[in-house]
Amino acid sequence: MNQIIAPFNPDKRALSGMRPTGPLHIGHYFGAIKNWVEMQEELESYFFVADWHALTSDYADTSGIRAYIEDMVVDWLSAGLDPEKSVLYLQSGVKELAELHLILSMITPLGWLERCPTYKEQQQNIAGKDLNNYGFLGYPVLMTADIIITRARWVPVGGDQLPHLELSREIARRFNALYADTFPEPEARLTPTAKCPGLDGRKMSKSYGNGIFLHESLEEIAPKVRGMLTDAARLRRHDPGNPEVCNLYPYHELLTGEAVRAEISSGCRSAAMGCVECKKILLKGLADFLAPIHEKRAAISARPGLAWEVLAEGQKKANRECACTMEAVREAMRMKY
Ligand code: TRP
């Protein structure tokens, strides 16, 4: 490893980021944040707001980004990310990231990016937005810079990000081979999660309007749960149902203890339990799950500006580390003048 880098163990460091898309829903919680909260107990953890990445799709209208950042960070804190334990910061606050991204863009073959499965897919999927731009093709290059500039080994992500992680490893390896051994190769730490589909069974997403948000009150959530479609074949109360095809049941796997869950499952199959009762149990589970999150949120909301203060504090630490990596990069490339 390069001399300039203070000795440290990359295997003890984790990093992840999230694009600021506004308030978080329970899909974000079970898909990512829960894992992050656990990780901060065990590893030196860096979590950042990927506001430059938000531009790949929202470049034409940036008016929402500021509020989205704040909403998201308030949710991070409410859900248990602790600035005493993790480094929380903004991507756009690390100017060295732009420098590293530029350098990586020089050594990344176009074919690697064009072949990336997320590239073609998303370009077709995000209707109404022109994603035919340079930044979108380079999304994984910026993501690589995000990761390797902290020299973290572990990157907690969902399975959809695996192609990006693979590219990150390839780019890091290429840098090390071309210049000097500077970067550890990052590895995905897959979120060991049960699935958390949206209220309608599709992926939970703000744009589908099928989410339960961490900030929502029980009064807001109750009608959503009551309106959920269960097993469509279970027309009458005394028809037996099948939890495997029910939209509600996956939530019990996340929120309901094993014993009660077994009762629900057999009660559904035998028609001893109806959907109304099953939904009541779920609502109680949601209430218990959300109570501590809402309590923290109330304390945070009483201190306006707190999210920005937390980010500014984390920024100092992140920037020190990133500046140090960039010194090593310039040295490795013999471009330290
Ligand atoms: N691409 C990630 C997503 O859409 C967000 C992200 C940006 C990220 N940079 C990262 C995740 C670095 C992990 C590490 O979810």
Write the layout of secondary structure elements.
Elements: E1 13-18, H1 26-42, E2 44-49, H2 51-58, H3 65-78, E3 86-90, H4 96-107, H5 110-114, H6 117-125, H7 134-137, H8 139-148, E4 154-157, H9 162-178, E5 187-190, H10 218-226, H11 249-255, H12 258-270, H13 275-301, H14 306-332
Parallel strand pairs: 1-2, 2-3, 4-5
Residues 15-19, 50, 53, 143, 146-147, 155, 157, 161 line the site of tryptophan (TRP).
Report on the architecture of this protein.
This protein is mostly helical. The protein folds into two domains: 10-195 and 304-332, HUPs (Rossmann fold), CATH 3.40.50; 218-297, Tyrosyl-Transfer RNA Synthetase, CATH 1.10.240. It is 53% helix and 7% strand. It has helices at 26-42, 51-58, 65-78, 96-107, 110-114, 117-125, 134-137, 139-148, 162-178, 218-226, 249-255, 258-270, 275-301, 306-332, and strands at residues 13-18, 44-49, 86-90, 154-157, 187-190. The strands form two sheets. Strands 1-2-3 form a three-stranded parallel sheet. A two-stranded parallel ribbon has the order 4-5. Helix 3 (65-78) packs across helix 13 (275-301), helix 3 packs across helix 14 and helix 4 crosses helix 14. It is elongated, with a radius of gyration of 22 Å. The mean pLDDT is 93. It binds tryptophan. The site of tryptophan has 13 residues, from strand 1, helix 8 and strand 4.
